[in-house]
Fold each of these.
Amino acid sequence: MLNIVLFGPPGSGKGTQSEHLIKQFELIHLSTGDILRVEIAAQTELGVEAQKRMDKGELVPDEVVISMISKIIEKNKNAKGFIFDGFPRTQAQAEALDEMLLVHSTKVDLLVMLDVDEEVLKKRLILRGEKSGRADDVNIEIITNRINVYRSLTKPVSKYYKKQGKSFPINGMQTEAEVYSDISHVMRKFVK
Ligand code: ADP
């Protein structure tokens, strides 16, 4: 298996780059944000609870997302690998992911870190909100909160991977094609 964590702040292009990567490398795209939005649309109990946090720009509890991811990994034991997009977002999630993968004798191979300045992120998210109407993209206070949550809870998680020599920083302010070219360059080192 080839398992990649696409890491970076909200609006750094994780979803966009995942779309390209799944086509080229035939990996399963696992976006916790997308899965949660499906639950919200279906108004499941999980979705209703998650929405309260998401609409404020806060994180959904670790045990909720960890259990979602665990079920999907379980169902796709024979996959070529996964792209984790928006997960892990806390240290507890990172450690849980390691355990889940270890059960299947696999691991996180690399973390791709998309670096984008905060001012650029805010502009991108406002623009995305105008197009998609996504509740957490339309309001600057919620956007700012998400960026702050990223800075305090999520960004430190990258150190966990850096210590293991698995972190690859990429300039996420280049064009979409340039960012993708940099990511595939890194990925090729891991594909046999
Ligand atoms: P973005 O990265 O652009 O903010 P996502 O779709 O990844 O968008 O996430 C949207 C929201 O979903 C987050 O603000 C958070 O509330 C929730 N969420 C997504 N992934 C996680 C996660 N791994 N842990 C906790 N909450 C999450």
Amino acid sequence: MEPFYLKLLEDIRLSLKQSEIPTDKKLQWICDTLCNQLPNYDWAGFYFHQKDKDELYLKVFCGEPTEHTHIPFGKGICGQVALSNETFLVPDVSLQDNYISCGITVKSEIVVPIFVNGKNIGQIDIDSHTKSAFDQNDVVFLEKLATEVAQLL
Ligand code: SME
């Protein structure tokens, strides 16, 4: 991972240790921090699996509000990650089948699953207004971040 990402991950890790802050606030703070610190991160949100339904719901986010607050498993990039349990990097959303658009400004996307006790319980979703905005650094950074987030849940 590039030094900037390493430092950011460490800063986030330290901030999350503040036990008096409610989890929802921590998740919102992570979204805001990602959008503020990483220029290509134009939208960042956490989707979680509904309890009794094969559907994701949007819990917190930063960036433009989206109408896609509920996504069935299998639909779009997010819905596919709910089933595949694997990080999904989309360099160019216009070339992607089974994609749910959150606006014409979005050009690339990355979705990383969050595992608690080996179970996929949600995901971090990042959109960018730049094509090919994400690379292996983002994959490693966000997968490590997902591990940190899992410890809050
Ligand atoms: N593009 C996503 C939908 C969620 S938005 O990016 C906020 C998808 O295809 O699942």
